[in-house]
Amino acid sequence: MTQPLYDRATLVWRKAAYSASNGSCVEVAPIAGGMAVRDSKDPGGPILNYTDMEWFAFLHGVKNGEFDQ
Q: Is 1 within a domain?
């Protein structure tokens, strides 16, 4: 398994203002070349890393309704 190129203690996390107060949300933090994502209920848990291109594609899909039911 490849080690991340950052120290998780230095990441600056944020979550959407629309997030539920019950902890059912994710948090994001910018990293070199992309974005890190974690479950807000488990801040010490796994972190998913996405490249800038992957993050852009995800946001583009959200904004265009690709994930709407």
A: no
